[in-house]
Amino acid sequence: MKILVPISQVPDTTARIAFKDNNTAYDGNGVTWIVNPYDEWYALVRALELKEAQGGTVTTVTVGGADVEATIRKALAIGADEAVRIDTRPNDAFEVAEQIAAYAKDKGFELILCGKETIDHNGGQVGAMLAELLDMPYLPVVSKLDVSGSTATAECDVRGGVEVAEVALPVVIGCAKGMAEQRIPNMRGIMAARTKPLSVIPAATVMSTARTVAFELPPTKQACKMIPAEEAGKLIELLHTEAKVI
Amino acid sequence: MSVLVFIDTRGEKVAKAALEALAYGRKVAASSGSTVTAVTFGDAPAEKLGALDANKVIVARAAKTVDGQQLTKLVAAVAQSESAQVIIFNQDNLGKAVAPRLAARLKAGQVAGAITLPDTTSGFRVKRNVFSGKAQAWVEITTPVKVISIMPNSIAVEAGPGGAAVEEFSGDLGAARITVKEMRKAGSGIPLPEAEIVVSAGRGMKGPENWGMVEELAKELHAATACSRPVADMHWRPHNEHVGQTGIAIRPNCYIAIGISGAIQHLAGVNQSKVIAVINKDPEAPFFKAADYGIVGDAFEILPKLIEAAKKLNAER
Ligand SMILES: Cc1cc2nc3c(=O)[nH]c(=O)nc-3n(C[C@H](O)[C@H](O)[C@H](O)COP(=O)(O)OP(=O)(O)OC[C@H]3O[C@@H](n4cnc5c(N)ncnc54)[C@H](O)[C@@H]3O)c2cc1C
Ligand SMILES: Nc1ncnc2c1ncn2[C@@H]1O[C@H](COP(=O)(O)O)[C@@H](O)[C@H]1O
């Protein structure tokens, strides 16, 4: 099976969130970058498990500048066979989807495993957009995935429960918690990653439809009002009469 | 010219998410002098659809399940026939299957996870969450047609006059490619992302056998239950209760956190709650810095008192 895993680079979950250039851009100075957790823990690991069980190849693709290559190597260390970087800095989700679609359209990928969302952009958009551009079905929040022959069976989180859906390949999946367990790269993987192919391809000409014009940080909280443990019940009273939220 | 609102009308009642999307659509239509057309699918009776706060409701009876491709075709066709300028979705699992697809199909800009109405003083800008709620961003859509997916609890629901004209969609949606084999209903009732009150607990609860108290408090407060990541990882609670940066991001009116330390990744998913109350035995727990109300104490002693107080409140109101 030919599997494609679109991988995004994001700031570490503990990274300071600050902005520069008059609050128009994220200040990545001194930040540790990681593979987006959904892409790494669930999409990539499930892709590797399917490959190990059924044969095939796992390719990662990332839309980004040269600075993302260290992060891409981590995906190779975990076990991807090859990586592709599309050389441009995208402004929004649609540009990412267009770039990946332009690359993937004639490659015959049977399974495209995205993360359910990035933890910096939080759009949950790229997978669905990519599926539309490639005329494939898409399942947005999948917590379990199996493939048998040319059919995928997926457990999808939906309003009010879990739906078990069946779909013929090729398909794009948004991978979420439950699908696989995180893998820590071992020394052999890290060594092997150095020589695995990471090809850089030029960006396609795409259309821009939206752009971020300014960032804001949320207002800081007032001091916390402490309630003595003996009078704990007072909390309920205050939430009702003072905060008026229950 | 019109504002389209894509909603889910399956199920017994009209979901709060649908009412929020309609309220949002109403506001956008009012500011641009246009009308609201709701688009939906499935078997909802005509009376139920007619009672919605929209000028018109278009329903595709042929689409029975969530097949993103069929539903995208549906909304695209209606967008064209109604000359829609703005198309509203919920940023939920249904919206995520359709809205970005539609945006790609129409080459329309999308704001996913909107938390404000559009600001049109200069361009068309909408505020959304980024960095898992640690920051917000103003996004400008630069295309004539705009797609907006709104976060739960971003707009007050208002009862409208109803009286929508109901039309059945007769266009071709093609065959569904996705087949639903089974639906497993989740327990409690109130879907976590939409809940207005959330009672959440962490490792401080020591083990799954102690969740009875957490559930009881939630029940008394008509709240949904949530948990920290390790609690879901250890299978003390189902994974769909895991909130935070790598779980679900929520923004209820009231978030009560019990035995949760308040790690940065946990805070990311909950810090947009209007009011946060924290119960922790450690006065140095970082969560107190993000809280509005706090109690330092043992959860096993505090919870019974909270349950009692909640029962008392319920008896009084
Ligand atoms: C990449 C990454 C992503 C992550 N994403 C998430 C996420 O999305 N969501 C998330 O929650 N975490 C996430 N985490 C984990 C996070 O860093 C914390 O480890 C986790 O939130 C801690 O859970 P906890 O507060 O339940 O447990 P602990 O940190 O163990 O805290 C337990 C708390 O309970 C208190 N306590 C103990 N006994 C009692 C008692 N009897 N009464 C009252 N209080 C008591 C303790 O004082 C302590 O503060 C992530 C971590 C990483 C590295
Ligand atoms: N720059 C990128 N390069 C490759 N894949 C990406 C990129 N951005 C997002 N993705 C993929 O799309 C998913 C959803 O991203 P988003 O729409 O930003 O929430 C991610 O989990 C990745 O799998």
Helix content of chain B: 25-40%
Shape assignment of chain A: globular
In helices, the fraction of residues of chain A equals: 25-40%
Report the radius of gyration of chain B as a whole number of Å.
21 Å
How much beta of chain B, percentage-wise?
25-35%
What portion of the residues of chain A fall into strands of 2 or more residues?
25-35%
- Multimeric state of these chains? heterodimer
Key phrases:
heterodimer; A: 246 residues; alpha/beta; nine-stranded mixed β-sheet; two-stranded antiparallel sheet; 6 helices; 32% strand; B: 317 residues; seven-stranded parallel β-sheet; five-stranded parallel β-sheet; 15 strands; 26% strand; elongated; binds flavin-adenine dinucleotide; binds adenosine monophosphate
Report on the structure:
The complex is a heterodimer of chains A (246) and B (317). Chain A is α/β, with parallel strands linked by helices and 246 residues long. Helix content of chain A is 27%, strand content 32%. Chain A is built from 6 helices and 15 strands. In chain A, the strands form 3 sheets. Chain A has a 9-stranded mixed beta sheet, with helices on both faces. In chain A, a hairpin with a 2-residue loop joins β9 and β10. The longest helix of chain A is centred in the N-terminal third of the chain and has 18 residues. The model of chain A has no long low-confidence stretch (mean pLDDT 96). With 317 residues, chain B is an alpha/beta fold. Chain B has a 7-stranded parallel beta sheet with strand order 5-8-4-1-2-3-9, with helices on both faces. Chain B has a 5-stranded parallel beta sheet with strand order 12-11-13-14-15. A two-stranded antiparallel ribbon of chain B has the order 6-7. In chain B, β6 and β7 form a beta hairpin. The N and C termini of chain B lie far apart (46 Å). Classes of the chains: A alpha/beta (246), B alpha/beta (317). β11 of chain A pairs antiparallel with β10 of chain B. The site of adenosine monophosphate (AMP) has 24 residues of chain A, from α1, β6, α3, β8 and α4. The site of flavin-adenine dinucleotide (FAD) has 26 residues of chain B, from α6, α7, β14 and α8.
